[in-house]
Each structure stands twice: as structure tokens, then as C-alpha cells.
Amino acid sequence: MNILVLNAGSSSLKFDLFEHPDRMLTHGLVERVASMDQAIDGVFGKLGGQPVDAVGHRVVHGGDRYYQSVIVDDSVEKAIDELSALAPLHNPNNLEGIRAARAKLPNVPHVAVFDTAFHHTLPPHAYVYGLPYDYLVNKKIRRYGFHGISHRYVSWRFADLHGKKRADYKLITCHLGNGCSVCAIDRGKSVDTSMGFTPLEGLVMGTRSGDVDAGAILYLINHGKQTPLDLLNLLNGESGLKGISGVSNDMRDVLQASKDGNERATLAVDTFCYRVRKYIGAYLAAMNGADALIFTGGIGENSDEIRAQICAGLDALGVAVDAPLNTVASKEDRQIGNAQVKAWVVPTQEELLIARDTYRTINNIPHE
After folding, report:
1. Which of 144, 183, 259, 348 is close enough to 151 for a disulfide, judged by CB 3.0 to 4.6 Å?
2. What does each C-alpha distance from 106 to 53, 69, 73, 110, 224 come to in angstroms?
């Protein structure tokens, strides 16, 4: 069974074709297209005639409606559209990809796999904000969490490497890339995560601000004469590593600038690492300890310097990296620390999990 995995962006479409269960046949990116219909045609041009038996779609926001992956029909499309108000930078693009793919392949099943679904197990005390209760009930203002596909995969992979289940462990997973989040996973269930109502909350990211006092935003509106749209663009696209360093949103560039003596770049690196370290400490408290700390994502998998700086000073909480292990250049799953809380690098494979979920959803097999 060949499963096509699609991840639709604003002007690009990533694709991966898997032969179930785990064999990748091909993958690629179609970009700079005028429409998603053109992008879908481009994907099939690159597939070279290989058959497609099912399609799995990454969808960022499932709100409080979707707790697991679902087969797409018109009602699901409508729901994803309605949830676009909660994820205006993501869901509309995801939906456009779904519609174009369903038009191209109307006779095969399509499955929506939601980034928020893994976090449906958050307890109320972790997802509620300190707002009037009406805002939670009637306006759905709450923590939803994101990167759930990645957090779910690496927690499963860690347990599988040890011949066990996620339910056997308490884990803290750090997805660090251009977008960043940390997740506390207690016996297989997400119990807290750094991203919130939107992917803006939490860690300092490539171009996103992370945590900012809401009062500062109101101040800029009232005294800086900036519009909400101005600030949305500022917080999403001009902040984070890029905004602090003035160099780049790419951690590799910022690290190099720091080594070259750029003080703002050094501040950006220090702030990034400090914010991650704080969340790790918070989640150790939330779960009363953890069995392992897992790094994933482009920065988490590839930057031994950032991993070391994040973990520096956490030894009192049982977290440390082993320098020889941490500096080994590898693309494989590997342990990088032998302290009480084991430190690991587990490369994420979100597309693989989407393919597996697609197969399981179509065949009514319980999700792992």
C-alpha cells in the first residue's frame, strides 16, 4: 500500500511517498507555484507514475474537536475551515492542500493528522488560562499545544528502542527547530507543553517571540500606535533569534556571529538556551522527575553546542550531557548523557508517523 504524505504551506507543498509500513519511496518539495492545484500536479509529475492508495495530510489545528486522526469528508473540511480562526497562518494552507488533493484523487481515502491531537490529554489545570471562565467555554481560549506529531513520534521511538511502551516512561521532549516547543509526557500522555493557544507561546524561536507579557502588547497598541496586524506580523516573523540577534533566524548563523564577537548574537543564543532550560526545570517539577530528556528537530538533533548550553546548570536536577557522547556527529538515535535523567537525541520522523496514522485510521487500527 502506497501512502502519500502532504504538508501544504503558503506557496509550497512537501511530499513523501511511503510503501507501508516504513519504506520511503521518494520525497520532495514543490514550491513557487501560483496555486495548490499546480502544486499537486507538480507532486504527481515527480512521483513518476507510482500509484497512490491513500493520502495523509498534516493539519496544524484540530481545536478541541479532533483527538486523533480522521478520514476527511466534507464535514471535516468544514471543521478545519472553521478552525482557521485559531490558526490563520496554517489551517487555510492545509485545507487548500486537502481540497486540491481530494480533487486530484477522489477515489482514495484522505486522512487528516492533527498537530494538536496529541495534547488532548492535557489536564484542565495545564490548559486553562487565568481569564474569566466564559472565555474558555464559549470562546475556546485555552492552551492547545502544537508539534504533537513530533513529540508523539520521538516518545514512541525512545520507548521502542528500549523494547517498551511510552506508558513505561516519564519523558521531556524538546523539538527545537525554526519553531520550538517542549512537552512533558507522563506515561505516554502529554500533560503540559510550551506552545499554547497559538504556536507563538513558549520558547524563543527562529522568528517567533515566545512568551511575552500581554501587557507589553497592549502597551504597544495604546502607546506605539501599532495595529494588531502589525504586532501579529512582528511576533511571528520579526522576533525570536532574528529579532534579538539582528543576524538571522538560523541558529547556525547566529552561533557563528556569536563566535565572531557579535554581542546581540550571543544574547540571542543565551536567551534561547535559558528559555529551554527553564521549561525543562518546570516540567521536571510538573511530573516530579523524568526518565529521559529527548532532543529533536533541526537544532536539537544537530547542535551539540546548544544541547550542552541548555543542560549546563541542570545537574542538580539530574540532567547532564556527556561531552564525548554529545559531540559525536551522527544522524542516528543516540544517548548523549548518563545522569539520572538520561539525555538522548532522537531524530523526528513526522511524515512517517503521518503515514502510519493514515494506514491505521483507514483500517480502524488503534493508534499508538
Report:
1. 183
2. 11, 19, 11, 9, 51
Q: Which residue has the cell 556569536?
A: 258
- Which residue numbers in the chain have pLDDT < 50? none
Q: Which CATH number fits domain 165-350: 3.40.190.10, 3.30.56.10, 3.90.380.10, 3.30.420.40?
A: 3.30.420.40
Nearest to 80 by CA among 102, 58, 100: 58
Task: Let me know if 115 is a catalytic residue.
Answer: yes
- For residue 227, the 8-state DSSP code is -
Tell me what pLDDT residue 274 has.
98
**16, 115, 186, 357: which one is catalytic?**
115
**Residue 244: closest CA among 275, 269, 221, 220:** 269
Q: What is the pLDDT of residues 200-236, one digit of tens each?
A: 999 999 999 999 999 999 999 999 889 999 999 999 9
In one letter, which amino acid is 364?
A: N
